[in-house]
Design goal:
By secondary structure, the chain is mostly helical. Helices cover about 70% and strands about 0% of the residues. It has one domain. It has 3 helices and no strands. The longest helix has about 50 residues. The protein is elongated, with a radius of gyration of 18 Å.
C-alpha cells in the first residue's frame, strides 16, 4: 500500500483538456504573433490554479475569439463571454446581410 505523501502529481495542463490545449496552440499559430496570447493565457491561469473555476463557455470564448475573448472573460466572466458571443453573432449576421446586399445590387 502506497503512503499518501500529500504531494500533488497534477500537471499545470491538467486543468484544461488536451483538446483545449491543442485548439489553443493551433489558434495561436494561425494568428501568430498575437494569437500566442491564447495558450499563454491558459498557462498563466493553470499556473495560478484558476483554470478549474472557468466554465466551458469561458474557455472556448478565449480559444475562438482570442484577445477579445480574454478581455471579455477577465472583465465579465461567464456573463462577459455571453455578451461577446452575442456581439460576434450580431456582427456575423450584419456581414451576411452586407454580402447579400452587395450581391443583389
Amino acid at each position: 500500500m502506497a503512503a499518501n505523501t500529500g504531494v500533488s502529481t497534477d500537471s499545470l495542463t491538467d486543468q484544461y483538456s488536451t483538446v483545449v490545449w491543442i485548439a489553443a496552440i493551433v489558434v495561436g499559430l494561425i494568428s501568430f504573433p498575437v494569437g500566442l496570447l491564447v495558450p499563454a493565457y491558459f498557462y498563466i491561469k493553470a499556473d495560478k490554479g484558476q483554470g478549474r473555476s472557468q466554465s466551458g463557455l469561458e474557455i472556448w470564448t478565449v480559444v475562438l475569439l482570442g484577445l477579445f475573448g480574454i478581455a471579455a472573460v477577465e472583465l465579465g466572466g461567464r456573463k462577459g463571454a455571453k455578451i461577446l458571443w452575442a456581439i460576434a453573432a450580431a456582427l456575423f449576421v450584419l456581414s451576411l446581410l452586407g454580402v447579400v446586399a452587395l450581391l443583389v445590387i
